[in-house]
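Here is the promised in-class demo. Please do not try to memorize the tokens; focus on the logic of going from shape to residues.
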């Protein structure tokens, strides 16, 4: 039996805004292991990447990947306290949790993802919270999303993924899931249809989507 309609959230820049970016810190960690890295190209890759483990694997020797990744995990935990949560968004998520099954699918490591959601007191609102498991290819590869849907008997054609960037959008294209852009922290979705710019419009945007979308039984 299928669950029916469901909402799947990205985390960084969707549920939370990272006031202090970790991009320069991650670059510094990588350079501890390879001082010859091209800073400009590496920094651009870090900004666009959806998996910290994938960053390490892309730039470092295999014997250095685990150590560098552990340093990034410790960095992520230290940065949690500086993260910005919007009270109106937290309230909206609480309302939505009474109407739809909610999920999180993020490229962030599982430990700091869980820790962040617990700190915001919304961990319990989600049926499953999926971070980077180090084995599955990161977004926009749809494997993690498809496996999640199978576990919970969801049809992705009945689901709405809420995310803030092009990787999130392309994830939905490749999986058959619907997409709603989250641009209330910043807008990185120029040219993408179905974008919500204000948190106060989120509930209405979701309601309109499900009232007009073709839902598969």
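The designed amino acids, position by position:
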């Amino acid at each position: 039996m299928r669950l029916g309609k469901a909402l799947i959230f990205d985390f960084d820049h969707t549920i939370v805004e990272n006031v202090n970016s970790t991009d320069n810190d991650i670059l510094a960690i990588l350079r501890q292991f390879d001082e010859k890295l091209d800073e400009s190209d590496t920094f651009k890759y870090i900004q666009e990447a959806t998996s910290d483990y994938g960053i390490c694997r892309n730039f470092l020797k295999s014997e250095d990947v685990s150590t560098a990744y552990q340093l990034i995990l410790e960095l992520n935990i230290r940065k949690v306290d500086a993260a910005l949560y919007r009270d109106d968004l937290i309230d909206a998520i609480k309302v939505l949790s009474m109407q739809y099954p909610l999920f999180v699918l993020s490229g962030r490591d599982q430990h700091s993802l869980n820790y962040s959601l617990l700190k915001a007191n919304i961990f319990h609102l989600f049926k499953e919270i999926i971070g980077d498991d180090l084995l599955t290819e990161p977004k926009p590869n749809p494997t993690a999303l498809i496996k999640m849907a199978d576990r919970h008997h969801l049809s992705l054609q009945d689901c709405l993924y809420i995310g803030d960037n092009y990787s999130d959008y392309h994830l939905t294209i490749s999986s058959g899931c619907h997409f709603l852009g989250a641009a209330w922290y910043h807008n990185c979705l120029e040219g993408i249809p179905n974008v919500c710019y204000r948190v106060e419009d989120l509930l209405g945007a979701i309601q309109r989507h499900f009232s007009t979308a073709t839902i598969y039984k």
